[in-house]
Every structure is written in C-alpha cells, then in structure tokens.
C-alpha cells in the first residue's frame, strides 16, 4: 500500500518505521526538512518525499495536533483525490472530525483512529515501532467513512502488531479517553503539585513513581487535548471527586468493613483487565 504520513513526531515516525518494515511504500511530510532528511537517510520513508506525492497515496495518515490536522487539510485538499482514505492518530475526535468532514472533498473517505501507545518523550528521535506491540487500537467511524475503511485500518493495525481493536463513534471515544487517558494525566500532574515534602524523591516507592510517571508531560499537546475535550473531562473529574469524597468518608468514619469492601471491589475489577 502507498501511504503518506503527515508529521514525523513520535507517533508519525514510529508508524513510518513500522509500516516500512511491514512492506508498505511510505512517504511523509514534515515542517522541518531536516527531519525528512533523517527519515530518508534511515530508510523509514522513501527518498525525495515531497508534498505533491500525497496525490498518489492510498492512505493518508494525519499525525499532527488536531487543529494542525485541520489546517493541513484546508491548505492541501487540492491534492486529494476520490477514493483515497484519510485517517488520523489524534487524541480527541468530536470537534476535529466534524471540521475535517466539513472540508474534505467529495469522494475522499475519512475514518479516524487512535493508537493507545506513546512515551513520556516526544519528537522524531523518540520513535520506536515496538511501542505499538499489543497496544489497544481504536477505530472511530464518522459521516465520511467508507465501506472498506475498517478493513484497511485493521490491516494497518495488524501490520503494526497492535492487540485489541475496538470500533466506536466519536462521542463515545472522547468520553472514554477523558476517563482512561486525560483524567489519569490530570491526576499525575495534580499529585506532583500536591507534593509539599522536600524529601519526597527519597521516600517514593513503585506506587508513587508508577502513578506520576505520566506527569512528564508534553504540556503543549496535552493542554490542547484537555481543552478540546473540556466538557467530557470536567465530567470525569467531578465523578472522580465524588469517589474521593466517598472513600474519605469511609476513612473518617472508621468504617473498616465498608472500606475493605470498597478496596476489594476495586481489586477484583482491576484483575479483569489482566484476563486475555
């Protein structure tokens, strides 16, 4: 398959590396010409990758921030042709998908995806196609989805060695991600801000380090994702505050039996995540 990747940051470059290894013909665009040169020299994209080669692609993968994906398509939509499939790897969907569906030329298909993989560090040099192995992969269908889109994107997911593949709509995706990804980043950052001890670094065990690992955050990207999914994230924060208040009440009231039950239910629910 001829694939054109827009943006060679961590995910875009890791896609390029993995898809080239799987036998696809991969071209790319990046604002920094030196990144394109590095990718060509390392053999993860074809030589002489230029924007006009997008017209020959079967699949175009947008790997920029959501608002930049929209700006890119607005600027280069004249290079798109009927029958092509557009996808993206962004972390929020409703707003971006609505905008892209509005501006895409007729005959161009668009189905979004979300690879649930990453690192605390970003940029081309952080690339690693192995981050996708057995990771979750979400396909998000919309108004411009074609009948063959899911088949194509499942092939891409399999070629990159993703694990579980789930298909949802944009609203469901954004609510899920508000809880499973964005809320967890809010908690990690909040834990670091709540730290008032100068000895914390010397007093941490695995639990604190595991919980705060993702506080090593790309503040530009995550600020944008939080704000684009604001209402869903606020709803999840409020629900989590209710749970904190509940467990706080159990502790304040010294209700040992109820506290043990609360902890046990959480333990048993978490165990189900490890069953394949």
What does the model show?
β7, α5 (about 150-160) and β8 form a beta-alpha-beta unit. The mean pLDDT is about 95. The chain has helices spanning about 10-20, 35-40, 65-75, 95-105, 150-160, 170-195, 200-205, 205-210, 220-230, 230-250, 255-270, and strands at about 1-5, 25-30, 60, 85-90, 110, 110-115, 135-140, 165-170. The longest helix has 25 residues, at about 170-195. It folds into two domains: about 1-170, 3-Layer(aba) Sandwich (Rossmann fold); about 175-275, 6-phosphogluconate dehydrogenase C-terminal like domain (6-phosphogluconate dehydrogenase C-terminal fold, Orthogonal Bundle). It has eleven helices and eight strands. It has about 280 residues and is an alpha/beta fold. The strands form two sheets. The protein has a five-stranded parallel beta sheet with strand order 2-1-3-4-5, covered by helices on one side. Strands 6-7-8 form a three-stranded mixed beta sheet. The radius of gyration is 21 Å and the shape is elongated.
Shape: elongated
The H-and-E topology, N to C, reads as EHEHEHEHEEEHEHHHHHH
Work out the helicity level: 40-55%
Task: Output the number of helix runs.
Answer: 11
What is the domain total for the residues? 2
Strand content: 5-15%
> Strand sequence of the main sheet, in spatial order?
2-1-3-4-5
User: Over the alpha carbons, how many angstroms does the gyration radius reach?
Assistant: 21 Å
Task: Give the integer mean of the pLDDT values.
Answer: 95
């Amino acid at each position: 398959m001829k694939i054109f990747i827009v943006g060679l940051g961590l995910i875009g470059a890791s896609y390029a590396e993995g898809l080239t290894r799987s036998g696809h013909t991969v071209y790319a665009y990046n604002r920094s010409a030196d990144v394109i040169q590095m990718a060509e020299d390392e053999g993860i994209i074809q030589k002489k990758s230029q924007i006009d080669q997008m017209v020959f692609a079967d699949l175009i993968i947008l790997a920029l921030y959501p608002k930049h994906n929209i700006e890119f398509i607005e600027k280069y939509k004249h290079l798109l042709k009927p029958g092509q499939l557009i996808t993206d790897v962004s972390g929020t969907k409703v707003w971006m998908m609505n905008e892209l569906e509005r501006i895409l030329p007729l005959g161009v298909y668009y189905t979004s995806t979300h690879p649930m993989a990453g690192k605390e560090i970003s940029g081309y040099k952080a690339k690693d196609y192995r981050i996708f192995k057995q990771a979750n992969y979400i396909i998000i269908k919309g108004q411009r989805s074609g009948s063959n889109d899911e088949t194509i994107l499942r092939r891409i997911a399999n070629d990159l060695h993703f694990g579980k593949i789930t298909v949802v709509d944009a609203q469901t995706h954004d609510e899920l991600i508000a809880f499973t990804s964005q809320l967890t980043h809010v908690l990690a950052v909040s834990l670091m801000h709540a730290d008032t001890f100068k000895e914390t670094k010397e007093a941490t065990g695995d639990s604190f380090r595991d919980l705060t690992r993702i506080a090593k955050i790309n503040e530009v990207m995550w600020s944008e994702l939080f704000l684009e999914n604001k209402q869903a994230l606020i709803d999840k924060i409020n629900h989590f505050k209710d749970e904190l208040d509940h467990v706080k009440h159990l502790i304040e009231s010294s209700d040992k039996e109820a506290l043990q039950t609360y902890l046990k239910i959480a333990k048993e629910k978490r165990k189900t995540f490890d069953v394949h």
